[in-house]
Amino acid sequence: MSMYIMMVAPEMAPVAKVGGLGDVVLGLSRELEIRGHAVEVVLPLYDCMRYDHIWGLQVTHPDLWVPWGAGAVRCTVWFGFVHGRKCFFIEPHSPENFFNRGGYYGFPDEHIRWSFFSKAALEFLLQSGKRPDVIHTHDWQTGLVAPLLFEIYKHQGLERQRVCHTIHNFKHQGICGPNVLDLTGLKRHDYYYSRDRLGDDYDPTAINLAKGAVVYANFVTTVSPRHAWEARFTEQGHGLGPVLTTHQAKFGGVLNGLDYEMWNPQTDPHIPHHYDAAAVDGKFADKEALRERLWLRKDYSPIVAYVGRLDPQKGLDLVRHGLYYALERGAQFVLLGSSPEQGINAHFWDIKRQMNDNPDCHLEIGYDEELAHLIYAGADILMVPSLFEPCGLTQMIALRYGTVPVVREVGGLADTVFDKDHSDRPREGRNGFTFRDPDHAGLESALSRAIGLWYDYPDQFRELMENGMHFDYSWNWPGQNYVNIYDYIRHK
Ligand code: ADP
User: Fold this and answer.
1) How far is the CA of 186 from the centre of ligand 1 (A)?
2) pLDDT value at residue 148
3) From ligand 1's centre to the CA of 307, what distance in Å?
4) Would the CATH topology of 4-257+476-490 be identical to that of 281-470?
5) Whose CA is nearest to atom 2 of ligand 1?
6) The dihedral sign for the CA sequence 5, 6, 8, 9
7) Residue 70 CA, ligand 1 centroid: distance in Å
8) Where do the domains of the chain lie?
């Protein structure tokens, strides 16, 4: 049966994207619509959005008054299509200028901005008569939607709505003081400060918006099954483990999907030669194109690549070690990445300078969408040695492009890459190499097997490439999973 889903999110690709959350909101919304469900998305109207990706932007609700503290804030609600998705953008007219700040995040009043947005989204549903079956919220920024719905809006007309909340990143939780409660109308401090509601588990003077979402939502997901386990039982939950355990019956991991339209080696406009699992030769031509583009020597050797943010989360010491180790083992190495931190960039610039005359190595420090596509197509091996990785997209892209991933067995990497030698899956279900310990020996144990296989058993290497290309990491499965979750909470 067809459902009506309202996404409430701080980001959606490509109009307002900071990271993977934005991709999920777009990809999942599209998949749900393909399956015949009605989807709408509520976002803030940011001044810094990519307006060129919005079609037909127009005012639909000029006067949405949102109760706020002792008064109310007038908002204008805009409507527009973003890549076919129906989006409502909320523009508050208040002196704080919540979303006109030239950036998406990083302001001192983050918890107030986002609590306002959460409240405004519900007020919009209430006043516009929209009654979705499920409201799907994303990360702590929209964490207050579920508490507000069930404590206030349920009694005002939104009595049948259900909430699914997805945690993309456990590190940020919206830990703040009581003014958020006063402003949003959650007036009984003692009640909300209780540890079984919004009270932070570690700081008795604070409330925790991410925790509030876990407590109040009808279902809570994170972005891979392995990360769901890690969040409960390891430090990767950043303190939310106990509350997730209390609510374990409504918590689970759903792997993110990959946008199979954007990442498709048969049609990718950024690569010179197209290919697929049945005819993989185009990939070898792309490898030569990659070498030409990066001035790498044309030789009989595998290309090992790293693509990603240069963030400590990604295991940067292992990235660097992998570079030297790959060269030592007779492979070529390509890196594409950047960091907002100058120190980290400078470190990789030093390595780049050191490697300046090496015809087997290229570091590209910066963000380059087009080059990323060519690297996924042209490389033989992609290395992802992350310390933690909630889901991870690069290994899924690599698989789709017939590039064999070498990954640390953590988070979504562990759910998507299955070791050629050690996995308990049947042979055709194995698609790469994994290692457990985040140290040099661990990385070498996997990378050496990958490079060795390329040189010594090219037929087996090719089989592994083709296996990877046959996996389905599109939104197909995750989409079905979310439909099941929505359906389940709707009938509870
Ligand atoms: P995270 O969300 O932690 O950054 P993911 O693996 O989930 O990591 O997603 C990373 C995405 O960003 C991939 O699509 C990858 O290709 C892209 N990406 C990361 N760094 C760069 C870069 N320097 N240039 C181009 N694309 C990049």
Assistant:
1) 39
2) 98
3) 7
4) yes
5) 20
6) positive
7) 43
8) 4-257+476-490, 281-470
Per-residue pLDDT band at 469 (split at 50, 70, 90): very high
Question: 404-431 burial, b for 16+ CB within 10 Å, e for fewer?
Answer: bbbbbbbbbbbbbbbbbeebeeeeeebb
Residue 492 has pLDDT above 90, yes or no: no
Q: Which CATH superfamily is domain 281-470 in?
A: Glycogen Phosphorylase B; (3.40.50.2000)
**Residue nearest ligand 1's atom 22 by CA:** 367
Please list every protein residue whose CB sits less than 6 Å from any atom of ligand 1.
19-20, 307-309, 336-338, 367-369, 372, 391-394
pLDDT of residue 23: 92
Q: Give the position, in ligand 1's atom list, of the atom nearest the Cα of 389.
A: 3
**CA nearest to 213, candidates 243, 185, 254:** 243
Helices (H), 379-438: 394-400, 411-416
Is 1 a residue whose pLDDT tops 90? no
Residue nearest to atom 26 of ligand 1 (CA): 369
User: Measured in angstroms, how far is the CA atom of residue 392 from the centroid of ligand 1?
Assistant: 9
CATH class name, domain 4-257+476-490: alpha beta
Phi, psi of 281 (to 5 degrees): -60, -35
Q: Whose CA is nearest to atom 4 of ligand 1?
A: 309
Residue 77: count other Cβ atoms within 10 Å of its Cβ: 21
pLDDT tens digits along 245-273: 999 999 999 999 999 998 999 999 999 99
Which pLDDT band, with edges at 50, 70 and 90, does 155 fall under? very high
Distances (CA, A) of 120 to 67, 83, 126, 475: 8, 24, 10, 30
Q: Report the separation in Å between the CA atom of 211 and the middle of ligand 1, taken as the mean of its atom positions.
A: 28
The 10s digit of each residue's pLDDT in 368-389 is 989 999 999 999 999 999 999 9
Above 90 in pLDDT, residue 83? Answer: yes
Residue 141 pLDDT more than 90? yes
Residue type, position 432, single letter = G
> Which of 168, 309, 338, 413 most suits a substitution to test ligand 1, by most atoms within 8 Å of the C-beta?
309
Q: How far is the CA of 398 from the centre of ligand 1 (A)?
A: 12
Residue 173 confidence (pLDDT) above 80? yes
